[in-house]
Amino acid sequence: AQSVTQLGSHVSVSEGALVLLRCNYSSSVPPYLFWYVQYPNQGLQLLLKYTTGATLVKGINGFEAEFKKSETSFHLTKPSAHMSDAAEYFCAAKILTGGGNKLTFGTGTQLKVEL
Amino acid sequence: NAGVTQTPKFRVLKTGQSMTLLCAQDMNHEYMYWYRQDPGMGLRLIHYSVGEGTTAKGEVPDGYNVSRLKKQNFLLGLESAAPSQTSVYFCASSQMGLAGSDTQYFGPGTRLTVL
Fold first, then answer.
1. How many CB atoms lie within 10 A of CB A54?
2. Are A68 and A87 in contact (CB under 8 A)?
3. pLDDT digits (tens, 9 = 90+) for A12-42
4. C-alpha closest to that of B91 among B27, B15, B18
5. Which residue of B3, B54, B78, B82 is 20 to 30 Å from A62, comparing CA positions?
6. Which residue in chain A is spatially nearest to B51 when comparing CA positions?
């Protein structure tokens, strides 16, 4: 069964610093990969996704992620954190199966941005 | 275009009571999903639907029932609520379930407390 692991349930960075949120997946077949962001008391919003092709994916709000098959990773980065980036981030993986289009989520990483 | 909406936003139940959560989408999506979100556990799939009149079990279906009588609506029912069902419930929809690269769009969530 596929699984998604997010290292670090809480990450704290200074405003202007690099943001790095880690995501690893376990699957015998490379899955489609997604990053979602959840602001307080809101639903999940898609940041970016990898399906096929270029392994470096750019998303909204200056975020990007790189798919590395050899490392089974899909880490999320942003060069310079902003206070508005404070939120919870979820990595998710999808493998096409006969049973449908199901996402497997990681447990989430809460990002705190400090002045 | 409202996207995915959920009713109600908040609800408090007593153990043993029943209730129905309503999800509506105006994007003409085929696939719809119900998730629950619990601290430290990410999102877990309860039930999903691949089209009007169809439903299927997800990862944690026990204690819940669903119906998809109309393409735009997906109802989640709790027949006899238990404190373990205290959670935040999210509905999502997507266009082409088996395509893999499609995005799931999430509603704002329903916060349910069972006393």
1. 9
2. no
3. 999 999 999 999 998 777 788 999 999 988 8
4. B27
5. B3
6. A100
Q: What percent of chain B has pLDDT over 70?
A: 95
pLDDT digits (tens, 9 = 90+) for A42-101: 889 999 999 888 899 999 999 999 999 999 999 999 999 999 999 999 999 987 655 555
CB distance B42–A90 less than 8 Å? yes
Considering only CB atoms, B104 lies closest to which of A41, A103, A107, namely: A103
- The encoded tokens of residue B41 equal 């556990």
Task: Identify which of B42, B92, B96 has the shortest CB distance to residue A107.
Answer: B42
Kindly identify which residue of chain A lies nearest to residue B49, measuring between CA atoms.
Answer: A100
One-letter-per-residue 3-state SS of chain A: CCEEECCCCEEEEECCCCEEECCEEECCCCCEEEEEEECCCCCEEEEEEECCCCCEEECHHHCEEEEECCCCEEEEEECCCCHHHCEEEEEEEECCECCECCEEECCCEEEEEEC
End-to-end Cα distance, chain A: 41
Tokens 């409202």, residue located: B2
DSSP three-state, residue B6: strand
